[in-house]
Specification:
heterodimer, A: OB fold (Dihydrolipoamide Acetyltransferase, E2P), Dihydrolipoamide Transferase, Chloramphenicol Acetyltransferase, 3 domains, 8 helices, 20 strands, elongated, B: mainly alpha, Non-ribosomal Peptide Synthetase Peptidyl Carrier Protein, Chain A, 4 helices, globular
């Protein structure tokens, strides 16, 4: 038996609200399938299962807010049945669930908290009628009457809570503040910057895009993505996680892309295996990711997997950006605006499109010398755009 | 398609990328990207939107001409005419 727990969808998340199950008991699932939608302060995230199996029991109901690590569901491993299954925890499976679910405040009514869910609920006829009028889902209303009966007042409270949804912008700001405070508290950042000539890259891109239809055109951002990923392969100390007092390099290069949301705030979900994708594939992935991030629909692996972050904040505005590392990652690469500069080359002066790239990296893992080599690798890769 | 229809299609496309835009607040003869927060991905999506709605192919070399709302409408009208 597998216990499927609420994963942490980023270092700034400590709880989540289950919005919807995408599976029901008896369904077969494969690793990577989306099984539930969970609301975090940043987005409604499609949560993927990490193992093959058959759904046994759903332990948390839509509408419930639970801490990270709560068992959401149990699954049989392939070949296992109800008769042969080994329980995930001694005693009733629900015992594995953290008691009381303290985060489920009255403002976000928990579904029949720990009453075993199947138990028939007492609901006064007046409350039932009123719930129907107000469009309140009775399953998500906590009863405060005798024997946990749902009263008229409970329904009214639930309706009020529904009418005043949590302030998303405020929640997101708090989540960003928590992650960035942790970063600045724990990570000894060092910063490097380099001005990279882009004459070849811009010329190559312009020529390439004249050959492509409008829907297949590439942006400079995908050249940055690929160059950073290939440099990560060469300098693995920039790519991975710092956890429990040590650095664990990552075998895959999953680049988190900082995406600003139109109503404020940002997310930095991953594009997977950037080093192994073509520029056309990266363009499709990037375009899809930006669209889904802004629509608030991301997958759990995109939230948890970034091994390094890239920010292209300068696009159209500032010349350089010095980032704050997103823990537990150990590096962030920033690109500013492409500007035309007076450039001395072999004793002659010419106009040169150039970009300022910066690195914020973790001194617990690497030193400036290695960081400088990493940045040089990015510079060199961007001089050979046809090979990216 | 007359210029009013083209203008309506242009504004609808822009609003699909930047929903916060109010048509009345756009200065038609002022640079669009000074008035709306569009990064290069947004801009590409605007161009793709014109392509899908109006069936025009806009080469990248022409982007520089698409500065203001009026300029975009004129450009597209010429393409469609």
């Amino acid at each position: 038996m597998i216990a499927f727990k609420l994963p942490s969808l980023g270092s700034d998340m400590d709880q989540g609200k289950l919005l919807e199950w995408k599976v029901k008991p008896g369904d077969c699932v494969k690793r990577g399938d989306v099984v539930a939608i969970v609301d975090t302060s940043k987005a409604a995230v499609d949560v993927e299962i990490w193992s093959d199996g058959t759904v046994n029991e759903l332990l948390v109901q839509p509408g419930e807010t639970v801490p990270v690590g709560t068992v959401l569901a149990t699954l049989f491993v392939p070949g296992e049945t109800a008769e042969t299954a080994v329980p995930v925890a001694p005693g009733p499976v629900t015992a594995a669930k953290p008691a009381a679910v303290p985060v489920a405040t009255p403002a976000t009514p928990a579904a029949a908290a720990n009453t075993g869910a199947v138990q028939r609920r007492r609901i006064s006829p007046a409350a039932r009628r009123h719930a129907e009028e107000l469009g309140v889902d009775l399953d998500a209303v906590r009863g405060t009457g005798p024997d946990s009966a749902v009263t008229l007042e409970d329904v009214e409270l639930a309706a009020k809570a529904k009418a005043a949804p949590p302030d998303r912008a405020l929640e997101m700001r708090r989540a960003i503040a928590a992650a960035m405070s942790r970063s600045k508290r724990e990570i000894p950042h060092y910063y490097l910057a380099d001005t990279i000539p882009l004459e070849r890259a811009t010329a190559w891109l312009a020529a390439e895009n004249t050959e492509r239809t409008v829907t297949e055109r590439l942006l400079m951002a995908v050249l940055y993505l690929k160059a950073v990923a290939l440099a990560c392969v060469k300098y693995p100390e920039m790519n991975g996680f710092y956890r429990d007092g040590g650095f664990m390099p990552s075998a895959g290069v999953h680049v988190g892309v900082a995406i600003s949301l139109r109503k404020g705030g940002l997310v930095a979900p991953a594009i997977h295996d950037v080093d192994r994708k073509t520029l056309a594939e990266l363009m499709r992935d990037l375009s899809d990711l930006v669209q889904r991030a802004r629509a608030g629909s991301l997958r759990s692996s995109e939230m948890t997997d970034p091994t390094i972050t890239l920010t292209n904040l300068g696009d159209g505005s500032v010349e350089s950006v010095f980032g704050v590392i997103y823990p537990p990652q150990v590096a962030l690469v920033g690109f500013g605006r492409v500007v035309e500069r007076a450039w001395a080359d072999h004793g002659a002066l010419k106009a040169m499109p150039a970009v300022t790239a910066s690195l914020a990296a973790d001194h617990r893992v690497s030193d400036g010398h290695r960081g400088a080599l990493f940045m040089s690798a990015i510079r060199d890769l961007l001089q050979q755009p046809q090979q990216l | 398609m007359d210029t009013n229809e083209i203008r309506a299609a242009v504004i609808a496309t822009i609003k699909s990328i930047a929903p916060e835009v109010e048509e009345g607040e756009l200065e038609p003869d002022q640079p669009l990207r000074d008035q709306i927060d569009l990064d290069s991905m947004d801009w590409l999506n605007v161009i793709i939107g014109f392509h899908r709605r109006l069936k025009v192919e806009i080469p990248e070399a022409d982007y520089a001409r698409l500065t203001t709302l009026d300029a975009i409408v004129d450009y597209l009208a010429a393409k469609l005419g």
